[in-house]
Design a protein that fits this description.
Helix content is about 45%, strand content about 25%. It is an alpha+beta fold. The protein has one domain. The protein is globular and about 35 Å long.
């Protein structure tokens, strides 16, 4: 895994913005985080729960967003829920 910051890339001619969730704090609001991941990134409850479960096991989880504004909104909410980013 690279230490370079996430860069936008093309996915079906759309620019996708990535953001990596690195870890979490005690008291993580998992249900709220799953809802936010679903709303802003995956669009699927099953995929969102899977990504949050990966985070809980200690994996770094990279999510994709359609815009920088969506990424920034998600990051703000996720930090309140207890997610740690770089």
């Amino acid at each position: 895994m690279s230490d370079l910051p996430p860069r936008p890339y093309s996915y079906f001619n759309r620019i996708m913005i990535t953001l990596a969730m690195k870890s979490w704090k005690m008291g993580l609001q998992t249900v709220s985080l799953v809802q936010a991941v679903k709303q802003y990134s995956t669009g699927s409850l099953i995929k969102a729960k899977f990504e949050v479960d990966r985070l809980l096991t200690g994996e770094s989880v990279a999510l994709q967003f359609a815009s920088e504004a969506e990424r920034d909104d998600f990051k703000t909410k996720a930090e309140v829920f207890g997610v740690i980013f770089d």
